[in-house]
Amino acid sequence: MLYIVATPIGNLGDISLRALEVLKSVDLVACEDTRHTQILLSHYGIRVPTTSFFQHNRFTKAEFLLRLLKEGKSVALVSDAGTPGILDPGYNLIKEAIAQNIPLTVIPGPAAFVCALVLSGKPAHKFIFEGFLPNRAQARRNRLAKLAALDYTLVFYESCHRIHATLQDIHTVFGEKEVVCLRELTKKFEEVYRGSPQDILSSLQKQKPRGEFVVVI
Ligand code: SAM
């Protein structure tokens, strides 16, 4: 069985009892960064072999993991944060496991975009999760302009390096629209900024932005 196991997005307490049981019982845990996942496993006294499964070894490592699964071994797939398969190499493994008729199941838990959506207070019954916007400025603005025409709450992931540029582009495309910018969700320095893109930019410019962001429009 391949277990897709959600893990915390910042607060080690945010893990289910079932996730802990599965992590204790499997033959191998496939993680993006083994050192990162080891912090979680050690916190809960779980001793289990781990292997790295990340962007650059995703094809060869997926083959190896699928072979183990076919031999009857159990594997837990985790990501650095949240639910595996959402913008991480887990997606490739899940797709292949389905193609090869390997039994799989999910152990649900946190996903940053769900936490951000509900905390934003924006309508959550109809939303688009866009993941990361394009890197190039013109492509980013074009994509935002397409999304602006839709009658949905929009949710984006963003890094601290690009949050300024993205908020500038949101201002260009959406003007004074109220935006919610959520930083370091569930962590000690969790912050929620509400206001126009310009309001948020001036709050953020008081210090160099750090950490991880979700933007909701
Ligand atoms: N699998 C993850 C999930 O379930 O949400 C997402 C992985 S994606 C590669 C990483 C992005 O998620 C970050 O760049 C950030 O935008 C968002 N993210 C993850 N943890 C976060 C947190 N604690 N606070 C705010 N955003 C977070």
Task: Please tell me what the overall shape is.
Answer: elongated
From the 3D coordinates, which CATH architecture of the largest domain would you assign?
Answer: 3-Layer(aba) Sandwich
- CATH top level of the largest domain? Alpha Beta
Q: pLDDT under 50 segments (min length 5)?
A: none
Distance between the termini: 39 Å
Instruction: Return the domain count.
Output: 2
Query: Averaged pLDDT, please?
Result: 96
Helix content: 25-40%
> Percent of residues in beta strands?
15-25%
Structural class: alpha/beta
Alpha carbon gyration radius: 19 Å
Task: Describe this entry's structure for a reader.
By secondary structure, the protein is of the alpha/beta class. It has helices at 17-25, 34-43, 58-70, 90-99, 112-120, 137-148, 163-174, 197-204; strands at residues 2-5, 28-31, 50-52, 75-77, 104-107, 127-132, 153-159, 179-183, 191-195, 212-216. Strands 3-2-4-1-5 form a 5-stranded parallel beta sheet, with helices on both faces. Strands 6-7-10-8-9 form a 5-stranded mixed beta sheet, with helices on both faces. Helix 3 crosses helix 4 (90-99), helix 6 packs across helix 7 and helix 7 packs antiparallel against helix 8 (197-204). The radius of gyration is 19 Å and the shape is elongated. The chain starts with a strand and ends with a strand. The structure holds S-adenosylmethionine. Residues 9-10, 79, 81-83, 86-88, 111-113, 157-159, 182, 184-187, 212-214 line the site of S-adenosylmethionine.
